[in-house]
């Protein structure tokens, strides 16, 4: 039996540790990001805020997050992952603490909304480098054959963070108040920062040889060119980006409003709503990796174009059906089941979106990925404020049914996406 070199064993151990650190940072980042949605009913009651006002607070995060997507990619190319994640975890903790101090003992009570807008917008700016940094770190440290599963694990940790938040913070909010719940979220971010300080690699360097090898591997593995000079000129890229914009619009409705919808519209008790809110994110933890695995399998079976189309085309159109059922059924438990299924179907398309972008863009995936993700978050920036505004005027049933139409459009846009070796 051939002995495994010690250097290979050490490298494997380091890679596993690095993925765990990336998952921890992504998870606590989402805890801090969505904690405000869990404590929102109590904040709204204390400060007399309307759904529309709270929706603008949710959207303020996405203003900063969206505008700094592309610049954050440049930052990830120049600064080590350890330094970036130390900064991110520290920033998340401090900003969550500041959120807990808004209106404390009447201080600045008249300025609650502007304070929340400012804090959430800055939070978005701080959070923007999270996924560009994770993606670059995986690209320069993992062998190409492991990069897909590593990225899937980091993306799946979004579901972990989103599932943990209501289960952890809703009971604390009920018993000790919403400010204490935010302190707990801040503490979790501080712990993640300590883990990066203790175990994070000091520096990560990108060598030209490894970059060339990874580029060559992508060309061989995907069967598509890795030197697309102008990916932003490809019609397929803009069909893809338009679909991802609508997917982001859909996904962020569930991120920001699912819990409040169950409490305020379906009239679930707070702790029960928290449990139900966790369901789609628990399922998403498995669905995101499985969506990527199935998409890769479909490419082998049906070719690059229809293989990449298969998951999002079916999933997004099916999501529309479940969204209509969830919005219009008179049975609350059926609504929970349908909306949970809808959320999972929308988010399981993440892998195919990013894999297709890489195949279309090759070595220019940085600018292409930033542009595509900008569109997704632009849709997400609009939906948390627009959805309750529509609901106040036409009702939640009609507002969500209209959104279901957008899900169908998002799926059908994939018919304009072609992933062929000849498309340059």
State mean pLDDT (0 to 100 scale).
81
- Count the E strands: 0
CATH hierarchy, class of the largest domain: Mainly Alpha
Which spans of ≥5 residues are poorly predicted at pLDDT below 50?
Answer: 1-9, 205-228
Architecture (CATH level 2) name of the largest domain: Up-down Bundle
Shape: globular
Number of helices: 16
Strand content: under 5%
The biggest beta sheet reads: none
- How many domains in all? 2
Order of helices and strands: HHHHHHHHHHHHHHHH
CATH topology of the largest domain: Growth Hormone, Chain: A
Radius of gyration: 21 Å
The level of helicity is over 70%
Topology:
Blueprint: H1 6-47, H2 51-67, H3 69-78, H4 81-101, H5 112-127, H6 130-141, H7 144-176, H8 178-199, H9 208-222, H10 235-265, H11 270-302, H12 304-328, H13 332-347, H14 350-361, H15 365-394, H16 396-412
Feature tags:
single chain; 424 residues; mainly alpha; Growth Hormone, Chain: A; 2 domains; 0% strand; globular; disordered N terminus
